[in-house]
Amino acid sequence: MSVEAVTLTNEEAARRRIGATAALAALMVFLMLISLGIGPVRLSPLAVAEALFGGGSEVAQVIVREIRLPRTLLALAIGAILGLSGASLQGLLRNPLASPSLFGAPQSAAFGAVLVIALGLADVRSYALPVAAIIAAFASVFVLLSIAGRNAGLLILILSGLAISSFAGAATALVMNLSSNPFLVLEIAFWLLGSLEDRSFQHVMLAFPFIIAGAIMLFSQRHAFRALSLGEETAQSLGVDVGRLRLFVISGVALGVGGAVAVTGTIGFIGLVAPHLMRPLIGHDPGRLLVPSAFAGSALLLAADIAVRIIPSTSDIKVGVLTSIIGVPFFLYLIMRERRALGGGVA
Amino acid sequence: MSETALLTARGIIVRLAGRVVLKDVSLALSAGHLVALVGPNGAGKTTLLRALAGLIPSEGEIAVGGDALASLPLRERAKRFGYLPQGHLVHWPLPARDIVALGRYPHGATDPARLSPKDAEAVLRAMQAVDVMEFSDRRVTELSGGERSRVALARALAVEAPIILADEPTASLDPRHQIDVMKNLRATADTGVLVIVVTHDLGLAARFADHVLVLKEGNLVSWGTPDEGLSEQVMADVFRISAYRAEYQREVVIVPWADI
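Structure tokens for the assembled complex are given below, as produced in the milestone run.
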């Protein structure tokens, strides 16, 4: 038997992965074109593409490039960072039920942002907002991983996540409760639902630096996640600095989720769902799941944001509400599938 | 022992959660030997293995091939030890080949899909050594316990490190697979690798090991050839058992017999 026996069989799997990833990228582009075309003035994907690259009528150009592009870009980037955060947390904890929203990260980020708004420390378009959201998200993930310890079982993770998200929710409610300005309360309440409506390039500038920094941090750890498949001790014996890896993941998730929440409010469950959709196509290698999960997250959020604009309703549905409505039943399905591990107490 | 020891430890003390688990352990082990580390439950065998590999902090001095362990960067340490923990845990259903390829991680081969020819050869050697080529493409989670333990062993061998540390590699295997694993480790030692095996099976230790180290309550209480290290006195003092002793096909046979 020769070396080819080891290397050749890998190529077929690699081709399948590349094919799936390319198809996903094509889907993303398609959804972007649809997203840019939807609104009071409907434009076909072709007209959108034309306007995007400086062709077509001037009106179409303004609509696509100035009014709708920020919203679409935010959906793209935020979906991606949520998918990437979910895949990273699942890789770090070696647990398919890990995700930012189940761990209370977006809820905590929202609390940080709400606190800043309510105290009047900053206006809603300053960098203070994402910074506060990031600090709160970092604290929540840090606390969760500290409670869970090195070899966290499913039960402990989920329970700690529940406690942290409940606490963040209660803290946010308290801030609203104590606020003397009813308009502010209403504004916060709507913002918490999660929406991409009426976002401008200012919002894009606000969120992108943090999202990109977070994405780079998470992606840089892709190989370490793979070694971690063998457990923390073995990964360490293979030369992985597990302490540094944890810090990178906590920081990356906090930067990404904090930056995202600061401009859109809480959008949940994308991080949980995206990696699961990718496993049948890509396989279970946690290092390889990162990019496809990010793409899937983008596609999901773009699709959800298109759906809220198409679904006929008396008042507009917030995209964060829709992702939760779809995400929670999916979560229940996952719990059913993982029932044995959950019943055992430790996974 | 000899001056050319590959792995030396002097005055190793390990505290875990305020408890002293290892109390002043010193040893010197040479290349090409299969060393069995035995002792009752809670004696500190796994802790000693982890300390030797630098996976947990310890007081004292550990040196590998003349270099102080503490002075070696993580990556360099990883190249010197093939570490095989208890349980052969794999968290994701990955193909066996990808698991074995992770043994090349310390050498910079962090992606099993892009192995250099040199790394692919090492993976192939390891897989052939323990005979797991036939389920190279199967997911480890679908393998039987015996098959999975062989894949785990191949992973540790693929590091091609001068030292292999194996923590109960024969636990929960049927007799045939226990012997297979020990034979593989014996063959690895015979190629010049220092192999340290933690085991509860005194019979396997006596038969396959060159040296036996006996730990009791964090102290190294006995060492030497299996016959010396596992003397009647040691069996009585440390394990509180008597044993049937014999020789079969020119190898030492020790069968734990009765409590005393």
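The first helix of chain B runs from residue 45 to 52. DSSP finds nine helices and twelve strands in chain B. Further analysis is deferred to the final report.
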